[in-house]
Specification:
About 0% of the residues lie in helices and about 45% in strands. The strands form 4 sheets. Strands 1, 5, 7, 12 and 13 form a 5-stranded mixed β-sheet that branches. The protein has a 4-stranded antiparallel β-sheet with strand order 4-3-8-9, with no helix packed on it. Strands 2-6 form a two-stranded antiparallel sheet. With about 140 residues, the chain is an all-beta fold.
């Protein structure tokens, strides 16, 4: 049974390959903005934990330091928000993010949904947009 207006969580795992002509390191949270179907934006707050698996193992542990060189390396992070099934919340139409220490902003306008394929629909956004720290690898989890 679906109850109109019920709140649930939504989220995505973002995977990116990074490289730099000069050796450097990255640590921290991406700066992230969601574009909404009502022509507004939502800015993500930083979060160490959430309903999606991954992130940093404890709130006391330091954020991962990721060495970046000329050789591409895969990094990831998760994004989560409150969603719902009612008509009152706008949809997320795109996500813009900048990785820590970078000047380049990337825009994502579609996602790969397991079993569904490519989708241009991120789902309804009803609030509490949060982003987790950038970590090594493709899982969104540190370690």
């Amino acid at each position: 049974m679906v109850i109109p207006g019920a709140a649930v969580d939504g989220g995505v795992l973002v995977r990116v390959a990074v490289a730099s002509p000069v050796a450097c390191a990255m640590r921290g949270y991406p700066t992230l903005v969601a574009e909404l179907s009502n022509h507004r934006t939502a800015h993500a707050g930083d979060a160490r934990d959430g309903y999606l698996p991954g992130g940093v193992t404890t709130t006391r542990s330091p954020l991962p330091r990721i060495s970046v060189s000329t050789r591409p390396q895969k990094v990831s992070f998760t994004l989560q928000w409150v969603t719902g099934n009612g008509p009152t919340c706008p949809h997320i139409t795109a996500v813009r993010f900048t990785l820590p220490g970078s000047r380049a902003t990337l825009t994502v306008r579609s996602v790969h949904e397991g079993g569904v394929g490519l989708s241009t629909w991120f789902g309804p956004y009803c609030g509490h947009l949060q982003v987790r720290p950038v970590v090594r690898g493709l899982s969104g989890a540190d370690g």
